[in-house]
Amino acid sequence: MSRLGHTRDKIYKTVARQLHGVVPCWVCGEHVTREAATLEHIQPLSEGGNSHAENLAISHEICNGQRHAAGQVPASATLPGRVQRRHAATAGAGKA
Length: 96
Prior knowledge:
Elements: H1 3-18, E1 37-41, E2 56-60, H2 61-67, H3 86-91
Antiparallel strand pairs: 1-2
């Protein structure tokens, strides 16, 4: 297992233990299964972030990718640094 894989598993287990088995995605807030978990840099490396444990969080792979896709995912109005949840972003899209 890679070093990042080991770190991901360690963080996942710690969060699961602290939150009684529920591991929320740092981006969308929904539960992340162990198989779907990826590491998210809270402050991106491109913006001066690092890979220390304090700057890492668990997220879904798709949420991690969407968060970093420039201009494609709206920011959450209520949760700084997170994206607007998909169902909230699309719910009002068809209304005019």
